[in-house]
Amino acid sequence: MTAFAVTWLLLLGKEEFMSTRRDYYEVLGVARNASDGDIKKAYRRLAMKHHPDRNPDSVEAEANFKEAKEAYEVLSDASKRSAYDQFGHAGVDAQAGRGGGGGAGFDPGDVFGDIFGDVFGDIFGGGGRRRGTRVYRGADIAYALELDLEQAVGGDQVNIDVSTMTECETCSGSGAAAGSTPQTCQTCAGHGQVRMQQGFFSVQQTCPRCKGAGQMIIDPCGDCGGQGRVPHARSLSVKVPAGVDDGDRIRLSGEGEAGPNGGPSGDLYVEIRVREHPIFERDGANLSSEVPISYGCAVLGGTVNVPTLDGEVTLKIPAGTQSGKVFRLRGKGVKPVRSNAVGDLYCRAVVETPVNLTREQKELLQQFDESLDKGGSRHNPRSRSWLDGVKAFFDDLSG
User: Fold this and answer.
1) Which of 177, 212, 264, 360 could form a disulfide with 219 if both were Cys (CB 3.0 to 4.6 A apart)?
2) Residues with Cβ < 8 Å from 175, sequence gap 6 or more?
3) pTM > 0.85: yes or no
């Protein structure tokens, strides 16, 4: 079989495999005479809309993202676009020695590697032969936002200052100085990869000179040093929804790092950190608080004013309340951000022991304590029960 026949059998096989590919201009939603800027703008819009990170578990979004990426890689490259305009998908596959009638430089192994590198590179995310600058999504960044409990429960609008890598305005992200453009890498001829031939098969690796970009910055931009991005401090307004809790995250789409080579920006994740409160502790939708009560109030009963996030309420303390008794105030807790049910406030009574007593107070308390002892278990049932248990324990040991 001739080299010409081998080439076209492989190309026809690939064209049949990819027969479902749509028109690239239709994919990007641009006219056939669209400028390079319009094509880039259309691709960035589709890439942000269908990116897998924005559409987790969506097979359709992933397919649309890959389709837009494939269309952009062809239409953003002048040579590939010309071949596509003349011969469609087959023209792109057959260009640059991939299809012609076995001309100079033809190698069946090279054709084999190009075809299957393109097909399976698209499926598994690898690279086939590509031209032009590769576009990558920018990195996500995180910001820790400290809030008071009242802010987290009631919601707030907070301004934050973040520093991110943004697209250089001077060179519009190209990295090249004004009046110049990135040049095709001479080592890989713009493919971003170099090929090592081993008989019928070939092995590809990232170009060591351009690091896979396919282009070189000969005259770098003075502001970004050829990186296409510069650090930039900016102020953002974050809307904190009511009911957020410690550890919750708020995503600000597209506010992360700018993507290299004009790629879409990543996201900014604002992580909530709720400061410790002097009165309340939060557990999901519920709040808890300690309520100190006097010895007399615990014995005789009474009322105390208890603070809540909505203002003070009056809590009734029944006579004979023991330290540690918990009172429940319904609906005085928190409405979580993901629920419509409002939690409760749990108040734990803590009997405060009197201090710094006068001699007269001490004598009165001594007389009061002696009078309680005369009543036996009537006034101190818990103490009497405990003492009886201790006595029984030692009697068992001695017996």
Assistant:
1) 177
2) 168, 182, 217, 220, 221, 224, 226, 227, 228, 261
3) no
Residue-wise pLDDT tens digits, 230-251 = 888 889 999 999 999 999 999 9
Q: Which two tokens stand for residue 135?
A: 């576009």
Domains located in the chain, CATH noted: 3-124 (1.10.287.110), 141-182+217-274 (2.60.260.20), 281-351 (2.60.260.20), 359-398 (no CATH)
Q: Are the C-beta atoms of 243 and 155 separated by less than 8 Å?
A: yes
Cβ neighbours of residue 38 closer than 8 Å, sequence gap 6 or more: 30
**β-strands 156-167, 229-240 pairing:** antiparallel
* CA-closest candidate to residue 343, choices 396, 280, 282: 282
Q: What angle do CA 366, 368, 374 make, to 5 degrees?
A: 105
Residues 6 or more apart whose CB falls under 8 angstroms from that of 297 comprise: 304, 317, 321
pLDDT tens profile 286-298 = 999 999 999 899 9
Element (H, E) at 282: strand 281-283
